[in-house]
Amino acid sequence: MRKLFGSKKKKVVTDGPTLEDATKLSEKRGESLDEKIKKLDQQLSEYRAKMKKTRPGPALNSLKKRALTILKQKKMYEQQRDSLSQQTFNMEQITFTQQTLKDTVVTVNAMKSANTNLKAQFQEIDVDDVWDLKDDLGDLLEDSNEIQEALGQSFYGTEDFDEDELEAELEGLEDDMELGEENQEMPSYLEVPKEEPKINDQETEETDEYGLPMMKN
């Protein structure tokens, strides 16, 4: 039988409109109702203006009847608009709740992943080892400071001298040096030799073979 007539096809279940689609549709209907209410307000304004100018009688009663009909339509549209506004608000709240739940799921999963990673990382670290490491580093730094201090000390124990006595002795040495410089004569080999005055060749007198000046002609 199935081969002759074939098997029934399964109906494909399609997803219905989403809340976002329904919200947009509701907002669109609300805007349409607002336009209708606006037009009815304009008509009511026109009828009120005519009623002020019309004397009591059948004409005024006819205007009132039409105005009441328009007012009833306006009230009906306002009720529909208020109902749509409430529906739109409810759908927005549901959409917000759904999105909040999705965000919450993402947040919880992220926190679970972080918790797992933190536990794995803490398993690699021992708090006691950290404190021991800190103490060891402190001891090493202290030993290093002692070594540097020892290397910076003099081998001859110059730190044992009194600073005031050393300064007084230094001042005495400076006074002795100044006094010695005043009394000390300059050695002869450091003196600059004096130049003999040059005699002008023109002013020298001619002498004979016996060294006597010759008479000028």
Automatic annotation (TrEMBL):
Keyword field contains Coiled coil: yes
GO cellular component, one term: multivesicular body
Residue spans of biased composition, Acidic residues class: 171-184
Keywords: Coiled coil
Region (Disordered): 1-36, 171-217
Entry superkingdom: Eukaryota
Residue stretches of biased makeup (Basic and acidic residues): 21-36, 192-201
Protein family membership: Belongs to the SNF7 family.
Protein name per its UniProtKB record: Charged multivesicular body protein
Organism: Anaeramoeba ignava (Anaerobic marine amoeba)
